[in-house]
User: Which sequence fits this backbone?
């Protein structure tokens, strides 16, 4: 019987991050299901936070995340991959392929569009499931300052990045659109180990909403270790897309 | 709910790794072995647990409390169970075809009357197992291309994208003081374009004087682009915005709520962080009960098999969600639900015909 939830902690990559957010790495690796979001005696929950630039530099660089986003009338299948500095997003719904979006980010934090589906509009300000690229690029440019709360989603630790740190009041790409805040909707929640966007958190009520991968379908493949490839037939081989 | 969970646990307990190993070994030698012969102490699999009720298994790719595609299937089988028509087992997280196939096979081996695969992920494993169990009834689900895959013991299901859009467009045409209607879509995929074509047809039937402006964001997942698109449409005069892209609905609702004057929306699913009740009139969504009931009817009367079933307006497989608080907006007529009901009745009686929605 296949193991559906592939969760492997890369100790080396996590130690830096967890130490930075005040967690004892040894304890956390040993008890990976322990919630990182803690409450105190106050009425408002106090989340642990992580320093974003450190987090971005700690991510492993060879992974694939497979999941589904369920909607009222269909299910969108999503596959996000990172191979080094290249990120790809493939999706389909109702048997229709959306095509592949591929972005790269260089050492100076410059983003390039390598592939864009015919029906899509790709730009160098990636959002949605490719928000990881924006975070990494900002970190490499030295322009990513701030911390993010660490929450639990689908049994994993995720850092929910305040969207205004990433996009702020960005100029519109469409001249007909008035200037407005873009950030008061959803914050992308990035897997601590990989940086993959697993969920989005509503600014209005704190719920995981919108483009969020259904926790019942989520598979995270760490291709930097052989163990994961043995654990799930759904994970690709290292080096493949 | 509690009863179903207990049954699920019982079923899962029967499917132990040891038994999976035995089954795998048996298959390797070309044998089929009923798992009930492997020390199951829960009774004969051929015995109906409750007399004449059909034994039904529902397989869902995700969690059936998702408020979305998987949940509508669970609600339908629960209603059939309340009707006293079926006993049901629900299996969640069946998105991996390789993992789903042995589960389907086990239900078939246990002589379940009907095995419902509610998701395109389950098409291939169900078709593979169905060939080996000709007396068991199976269903598959997907887009229109799934319909020709029906066989003598397999029926196929999809829904009518054009009619989904038509009903939303008809409703848009009833809302007052909205001369310009915006449409926000995700990627320009054929099924999304079909929904938009249906919307325009419904709007035209309801009020030919309305004009539309349309934007595709190119993504189901980019909420920021949906905010931009909706704001742009509102700035261009749209007083009502329809969205066909569920994942971007949060962006549509957010932009609509912030715009001055407030813009109404159609098609925002879920509560969009509490915003939907402020701006969204309604959405057209699936009701799987008529579909599943028709399966049960045909299994019982011996006519099941080889058919495609399309959820639409007349068979009430596509329905409007309850009007939200946003429906208290003075632009929304008090008799909107009555008008929707009349439309469906007229279509059912033939008094009104749908236009071509190709």
Assistant:
């Amino acid at each position: 019987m296949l193991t559906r939830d592939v969760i492997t902690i890369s100790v080396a990559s996590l130690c830096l991050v967890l130490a930075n957010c005040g967690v004892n790495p040894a304890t956390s690796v040993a008890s990976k299901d322990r919630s990182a979001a803690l409450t105190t005696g106050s009425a408002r929950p106090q989340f642990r936070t992580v320093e974003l630039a450190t987090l971005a530099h700690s991510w492993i660089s060879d992974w694939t995340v497979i999941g589904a986003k369920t909607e009222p009338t269909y299910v969108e299948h999503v596959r996000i991959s990172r191979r080094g500095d290249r990120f790809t997003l493939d999706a389909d719904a109702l048997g229709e392929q959306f095509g592949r979006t591929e972005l790269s980010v260089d050492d100076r934090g410059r983003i390039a569009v390598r592939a864009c589906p015919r029906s899509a509009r790709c730009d160098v300000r990636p959002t949605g499931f490719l928000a990881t690229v924006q975070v990494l690029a900002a970190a490499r440019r030295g322009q990513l300052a701030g911390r993010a709360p660490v929450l639990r989603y689908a049994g994993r630790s995720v850092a929910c990045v305040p969207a205004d740190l990433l996009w702020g009041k960005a100029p519109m790409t469409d001249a007909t659109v008035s200037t407005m805040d873009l950030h008061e909707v959803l914050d992308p929640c990035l897997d601590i180990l990989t940086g993959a966007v697993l969920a989005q958190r509503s600014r209005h009520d704190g719920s995981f909403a919108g483009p969020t991968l259904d926790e019942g379908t989520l598979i995270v493949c760490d291709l930097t270790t052989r163990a994961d490839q043995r654990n799930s037939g759904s994970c690709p081989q290292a080096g493949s897309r | 709910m509690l009863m179903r969970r207990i049954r699920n646990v019982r079923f899962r307990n029967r499917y132990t790794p040891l038994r999976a190993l035995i089954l795998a070994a048996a298959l390797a030698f070309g044998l089929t072995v009923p798992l009930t012969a492997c020390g199951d102490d829960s009774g004969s699999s051929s015995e109906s647990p409750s007399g004449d009720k059909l034994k039904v298994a529902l397989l869902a790719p995700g969690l059936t409390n998702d408020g979305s595609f998987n949940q509508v299937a669970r609600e339908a089988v629960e209603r059939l169970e309340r009707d006293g028509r079926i006993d049901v087992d629900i299996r969640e997280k069946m998105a991996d075809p390789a993992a789903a196939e042995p589960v389907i096979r086990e239900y078939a081996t246990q002589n379940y009357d009907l095995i419902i695969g509610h998701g395109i992920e389950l098409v291939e494993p169900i078709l593979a197992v169905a060939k080996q169990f000709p007396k068991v009834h199976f269903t598959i689900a997907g887009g229109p291309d799934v319909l020709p895959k029906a066989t003598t013991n397999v029926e196929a299901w999809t829904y009518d994208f054009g009619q989904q859009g038509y009903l939303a467009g008809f409703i848009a045409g009833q809302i007052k003081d909205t001369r310009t209607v915006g449409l926000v879509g995700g990627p320009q995929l054929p099924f999304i374009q079909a929904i938009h074509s249906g919307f325009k047809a419904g709007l035209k039937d309801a009020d030919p004087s309305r004009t539309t402006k349309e934007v595709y964001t190119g993504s189901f997942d980019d909420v920021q682009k949906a905010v931009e698109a909706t704001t742009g449409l509102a700035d261009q005069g749209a007083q009502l915005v329809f969205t066909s892209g569920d994942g971007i609905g949060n962006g549509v609702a957010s932009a609509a709520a912030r715009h001055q004057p407030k813009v109404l929306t159609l098609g925002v699913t879920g509560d969009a962080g509490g915003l939907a009740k402020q701006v969204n009139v309604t959405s057209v969504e699936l009701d799987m009960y008529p579909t599943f009931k028709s399966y049960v009817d045909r299994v019982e009367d011996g006519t099941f098999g080889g058919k495609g079933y399309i959820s639409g307006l007349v068979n009430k497989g596509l329905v409007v969600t309850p009007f939200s608080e946003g429906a208290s907006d003075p632009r929304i007529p008090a008799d909107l639900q009555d008008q929707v009901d009349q439309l469906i009745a007229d279509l059912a009686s033939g008094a009104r015909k749908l236009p071509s929605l190709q």
In short: Confidence is low (pLDDT under 50) at residues 1-43, 170-180 of chain A.
